[in-house]
Amino acid sequence: MAGLNSVLLDPAIGVGANLAAWTSAGGGEGLARALDRPQDIIPTLRAADLRGMGGAGFPTWRKWTAAAEMADGEKYVVCNGNEDEPGTFKDRYLLRRTPHQVIEGALIAAVAIRAGTVIFYINPRQAESIEAMRHAVAEWTDSGLLTEVERVVGRNVRLSVAPSSGRYIGGEESAVVRWLNGSFPFPRRKPPFPFEKGVNDRPTLINNTETLANVPHILKNGADWYRNLGIGGASGTKLFSLSGDVLEPGLYELPMGTGLQELIFTHGGGMLGGRAFKAVFTGGPSNTLLTARDLDVPLDFDSVRSRQSRLGTGAMIVISEGTSIVRKVAEYVEFFANGSCGQCPPCKCGTFQMARLLDRIATGRGTEADRRALGHLCLILPGSGRCALIDGAVTVVQSSLQTFPEEYATPGV
Amino acid sequence: MISAIAFEQAMASLVRDADPVLRPDPLSREELLEAYHPDAGPEARVSLRVGPNRGDPCHPALARVVEGDALIGDVDLAAIAPMSTDVLVVGGGGAGAAAALSARAAGAEVVVAAKLRIGDSNTVMAEGGIQAAVGEDDSLQRHFDDTMRGGHHAADPALVARLAGDGPDVVRWLIGLGVDFDLAEGAAPGARLMRKRAGGTTAARILSHRDFTGLEIMRVLREAVELDRGVTVLNRSPAIELLSDEYGRCAGAVLYDLEHRVFKLVRAGAVILATGGAGRLHLTGFATSNHYGATADGLALAYRIGARLREVDSFQYHPTGVAHPPHLAGGLISEAVRSVGARLINGLGERFIDELAPRDVVTAAILRECAQGRGVGRDGSVGVFLDTPGLLKERPQLLDKQLVSLKHLAHRCGVDPCVDPLLVYPTLHYQNGGVAIDGNGATSVEGLYCAGEVAGGVHGRNRLMGNALLDIFVFGRRAGAAAAGQAGTPLAHGRIGLGHVQRWRRELTRAGVTGGSLSPVLYPAYGNFELRSHMAAGGKG
């Protein structure tokens, strides 16, 4: 049984855009260590086993190494704060309440890969986050603290805030690059990866906001300290966006590897109205559902993957008995259909057709043929898009079809 | 058992030949109210524990309803195809009909959902009439002043200004639709509306159709609504929950189709609650003059989605409800009877109160007589006399021309009003407070409007005779027009559902409110209606 972690959400550092308050709360030490021994940054992250918190769980050190190994010249660091999935609300909190934590992490990344431009890419619907970040960036620029960073990087360092397109698809890495290059945020095939050919065709390192927020703490306190924050084989601390049919929804910082049961019943106050637990949409609505069988799963990237699901962004949308799975799935697939950029026909038409079929079933007008058609779409659509949007939509439909077939049953047909 | 003077003895004390002298009163009106009105005293209110009015006083029985849990959950919405409209009006009384007609006039498509049938409401039971400052000796300002004073200055002046200000126009609108108001005697046809004086007013301002004004108005409005092709009327379809969108705005309602025993979803650009009051909750054990459907459904629905309430600890007890025979207890004897001159007499033959004082004062005075043993007892019922023989001896023609309902009621009571006085006792009549609204009926929740008795702030802590009929048309029409305007602006009602119910359940759990009461209650307790068993009974079709 573990309590809450207090690193990223430490109330002492939730000072908003106030550089002096951030420094006096212990901020800046991670960056100072990084500037002392830049060659140790990536090995430290590797030893700490920091993963990408935007959903992939990809080892952060690999991404940084790839960008660092590109030939010197103009390079970019992009902090991805597009956050637009249903049920995820962690990055907006970090940007608004701890902008300097995020900026310091991004500057350490700039030092590690010797980048001269750091861009904070933020969803325009989160006006408060943009406001806080603009203010915080201005504080850094005016403070002269950047001089030391520039000396180590060996070029001028510029920080800027760029509102994203506000589209769900705009959070995908290649779409981020497209948008920052001035085009509609269409994802594209990879390779080339952004670390090879990103903003202005230059090497670009793109990290999720929460990932970067972890970096100053790791540099300041060491890899061992960070590993010990986690439980079992998992390393570090994780923000969980808990929502749905729980008594106390909200943002919780817990050790990586905390049990699902504990998140819901200890921290989330249990199920609303004492109803039975039914399922969780993990990592937002694009993954395989976890059910009552999985309540014992430790919430870390590898353990959740071993149950054929994904931890994703750490969003946990909890469903109780008495909430219709099909209605929820219909809602989410409609979100994907609206979010599809439309450049890949299977995704454009597939999400639309799935949303149409789900709406018919959820509103009692579905037939057995509709249910079969939905099942067939799940077989032919995966892997047919340039990005993973269509795969996410299929995963949630397929998973709910397998786990709750009775809810799809259409009486009288 | 409180002692009372036996009926025969009281009859003997009733003086027949002279107008009785008003007994001097040692108490001021305020002291009388404080000591005897049902709203006063420690049992009359509790503090609400949840919701936007947490900490505010509320009648305990009403608190159980507004703090109740929802009847349905998300799973009940599964497999239902929603219907869509611009404006959904919940309630088929005068306020609902006026709202529907004015929303139509503003170009909106309208659905009216009625728990019983359209017109089947308290409106048809309004006997006395409607106030509107149309006389040359009257003014909007006087109407405003009377209403504010009558409501003990607790009303919202902005609402009262609209009430008084719209009065003449509402009357013109009603006449235009076909309402046949009584004309002054001796005047040329169409020349002068007959005006009567109401208790607590400074001018003759009551317009009436005999003594069934509300029935006459509802006759006209029901025809207008039913003949309008842009209005879909869903009878026997109570609203059991509102729907909200992801931003907490009101986006429709869940209805229960009593006939087919299924839920219906109605998506709407705006919802107008016109569900009336709470009389059938029988607060503090009082009989009620109210219609069968008056169970505070709208208050519960509005409060749960986050609308603020006001003065929900204040109710009007009509002074002259039937006390005997017991099976008609609570039935109303119109204030018109007193406004044309009938006296209230206690068991000693004393006239103890000015009959045209505000209703709360007359009520408290009657309750004092009964509490102090000066009431009249008959077959276990207690009350005071409403001296109709004294009145009709002078003007027997009143019974056929103006007091038709009284004649019917007396017949049902088995008495001849020209010979026997009626035994009366206060009856729960009107909910003074309700959902807080602005001048257009808008609540604190976007997309949700209220009109009529469900809304609060128009009458303060006491309502004048004739202002209820005016209220429902003034604010019904305003809410209808405003809702139609809002429904015209495209709102991104993406996902609609019961998000507000989820928030509400969290709040109930945190506050430890686990009484287990469910609302809306839909029917009085003696109606023995239980939603789930009703649905289950329909399973066989």
UniProtKB/TrEMBL annotation, chain A:
Reported cofactor(s): FMN
Identification of the protein by name: NADH-quinone oxidoreductase subunit F
Sequence ranges assigned to domain NADH-ubiquinone oxidoreductase 51kDa subunit iron-sulphur binding in this UniProt record: 326-371
Protein origin, superkingdom: Bacteria
Family affiliation: Belongs to the complex I 51 kDa subunit family.
Keywords: 4Fe-4S, Iron, Iron-sulfur, Metal-binding
UniProtKB/TrEMBL annotation, chain B:
Claim: Heme is one of the keywords in the record: no
Enzyme class: oxidoreductase
Record's keyword terms, sorted: Flavoprotein, Oxidoreductase
Span of domain FAD-dependent oxidoreductase 2 FAD-binding: 86-469
Cofactor(s) the record lists: FAD
Entry's EC annotation: 1.3.5.1, 1.3.5.4, 1.4.3.16
Molecular function GO terms recorded: L-aspartate oxidase activity; succinate dehydrogenase (quinone) activity
Pfam families membership: FAD_binding_2
InterPro entries according to UniProt: FAD-dep_OxRdtase_2_FAD-bd, FAD/NAD-bd_sf, SdhA/FrdA/AprA, Succ_DH/fumarate_Rdtase_cat_sf
Name of the protein described by the UniProt record: Succinate dehydrogenase / fumarate reductase flavoprotein subunit/L-aspartate oxidase
Source organism (scientific name): Pseudochelatococcus lubricantis
